[in-house]
Predict the structure.
Amino acid sequence: MLSRHLSRRGFLKGTLAAGGAATLTALSWSRVLGSNERLRVASVGVAGKGWDDHTSVAASPHVEIVALCDVDEGKERLGKAAEKYPSARRFTDWRRLYGQAKDFDAVIVSTPDHMHAPIALPAMKLGKHVFCQKPLTHSVFEARQMRLAAEKYRLVTQMGNQIQSNAEYRTAVKLVHDGVIGKVKDVHSWQSGRLGWMLVGDRPAGADPVPEKLHWDDWLGVAPERPYKARLYHDFNWRAWQNFSNGQLGDFGCHILDPVFLALGLTAPTTVRAEAPPNNREVWTKRSTVHYEFPGTERTAGKTLKWTWYDGEGHYPTAEALDLPKKLKLPGSGSVLVGEKGSLVIPHVAMPKLLPEEKFADFKMEVVPAVNHYTSWADACCGEGKTTSAFSYAGPLTETVLLGTVAIRVRGETLRWDSKQLNIPNSAAGNALLKKHYRKGWEPSWIS
Ligand SMILES: NC(=O)c1ccc[n+]([C@@H]2O[C@H](COP(=O)([O-])OP(=O)(O)OC[C@H]3O[C@@H](n4cnc5c(N)ncnc54)[C@H](O)[C@@H]3O)[C@@H](O)[C@H]2O)c1
């Protein structure tokens, strides 16, 4: 077991070579694993996707789940996780958990989107490795801070876009890297499913009694105060609301755009423009089309690349519009990359398909085996291997996704994106949406 972990001396040597007092500040908080010791993981947001996250990470023999934190103490949430890990300490407030920072080494953050950065960034400041759900954050600015913090404190990070590690997406990326469709001219991506969480068109009047086991104020966290209403927010349906989520693009973008972003080596768009119905005050639009333009890369045909995103029930391009055979049935969500030598359909989630079929009839597709997105994070925390969706990658991907959600809110404007300056120079309205307001008492001391 010892060989799996870096010795204290080795760890510090590597750190000093990398330089930076800040690194040591973080490390001075972190524990160095010894023989027979396990990575002590705290899980924040333990039900819903959080259940998948901590059980998948705990599948590693090197992991011990030592702390559970959830604002809902009900038997389906904190109660259920507590039954699974009876010796883990229980918390309802992550700030109290962080008060016991010496008792854990790494954190899983699986809360609704608006609390990802407020919970993950202080953990990083404490020198904790982080696995954080997608989209990495709730604002573009926060996504940048997450990337910078991971770099500054030299932590092992992974975003929860686990489909990246599946054979299907990995195979698709390899096909593009191998040049099978040639250089890519144009990309279209979509999620045309029903918005099952869009239960109302606006905030209803009144309030419902807060369930006895739910800490509603802590659930709201950095978001503006609002009365509790049953079913509309907690659980799952928070996705409808701008204060807590990033709508359908935010929900699926970090999955569906991921293999394209990775395959083409994209980093930041230069312009973004959206078509969408007028926004309601508080819920997201039910349908949008977002046009991104990126600088070309070695894998694109031109000096720029156009990439269009579509969401909304039944909203996606026809095969004909993409110069594909009229009878071709496109998947309900996924992407088409139009290349100089053929097209690639990347369904969400199924094996990729090369077109035209006749041209690739004899092509033997080499399936790239899956890797474990969760235990690879735990292994990397123990000094073995690397994660594939570290915040150095997931940060720019999330920035791209969230720039689309900025464009949706200032629909019709072509936003010029200055990634270096983290600025939209031609739109005050767009620029204002790169950051968000935090509730009094929850101000972000965690952003430096
Ligand atoms: N990678 C994927 O395939 C995938 C799938 C579903 C959800 N997600 C992501 O996972 C996250 C959670 O989504 P969900 O559908 O599970 O939501 P959910 O509302 O069903 O569950 C969230 C859990 O976090 C708890 N929680 C909420 N605020 C908290 C706080 N401040 N501190 C501690 N616990 C808190 C809730 O009580 C609940 O148990 C989101 O970011 C979502 O985008 C990812």
In short: Residues 391-409 form the longest helix (19 residues).
